[in-house]
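Exercise: predict the structure of this protein bound to cytidine-5'-monophosphate.
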Amino acid sequence: MKIELKDKLIPALDLNDPAEARKIMRNLIPLVSTFKIGPVLFIREGRCFVEESIEDGAKIFLDLKLHDIPNTVEHAVRSAVSIGINFLTVHASGGKDMIKAAVNGAEGRCKILAVTLLTSLSQLSQKEIFGSSISTEARVAALADIAISGGADGVVSSPLEAKFLSSILPSNSLIVTPGIRVCKEVSDTKDDQSRTADAVTAVKNGATHIVVGRPILRAHDPVEEVRKILSELREAK
Ligand code: C5P
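Solution:
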């Protein structure tokens, strides 16, 4: 699957200040096509911010990670796609019927991505949540299977699991990886993320898209940071 670099790198606009988010988005639009808007901005600014972003020429990845009964999810997805978004997330752990409901609600108008395991979850946190201590890979594989057999267009996983996911999922599945830290940061600045890798490793591992939030937002010059990531990806091709 050929995906342009412009579409591959998705900045996450996890900012409380809509004016700041708008400014960063407008500055980055010449370099990237798609921006991720999640609960931080969406709960504050709602669909107006998304509509204005689309008017500005941005494609929107709405990261609401829906997880509810199928009927509720289907109606929520219908509402979300009416804004004109391109990607929407649900949790794979909501089960196959919930994923099918999300896909029905989307009516092919936006890609449904299912989050496998949050990239912040270490092996220890997984054990606390799920009890048993099966490997992260086995858990992610089971959740990815639920997602794809439910009709999702792809999955969200850590960059560390992208490699084996690309070997088990149908070749047209999207593999979206957050948890990206630039090389120098991987060892020392993980923030609350646990399963991280740098952008080039993620893409080499099979990620079709990478989501990068704080490394861009906290950079002295976000535009320069995006240019740097894009040029690393270009060189690595
Ligand atoms: O700032 P950072 O680059 O860690 O941001 C990663 C983004 O990806 C955040 O918006 C977070 O909500 C999202 N995300 C994640 N792990 C997942 C799914 C989404 O970090 N499994």
